[in-house]
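User: Please go through the entry that follows and flag anything odd:
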Amino acid sequence: MRRIALIALTTLLLIGCTGGSDDSDGGKGGDATATATPKPTGPPCADIWKVGAKLPADYKSCVQDGTAAVQDVYECTDGTKLVAFNDAMYAVTGGQIEQPKVAPMQDTEEYGRAYSACTGE
């Protein structure tokens, strides 16, 4: 009986020593196969979002303070997209960037017209 207990204890110790992680992450406890979150790419938002400027037809996103911009994108019935940037400016891709004088922007008549023209709603 004593021999069986010794074998069981040894087995548990060996499992405890080898069965957790491979420690290839320097003991940080993370998954060694995980990759870092990719940094957002795109032009700086300050270069794109200027009142009266034209939003590029191929616009996807921009970067502000090292992170992807806050924006809502709506598919338009004509194949363009309505982009609302930072809840302050909007434009249809290929169109002029507008900034309503009233906040919240989404409650303005002009934005409502642009949204309806885009989505058909």
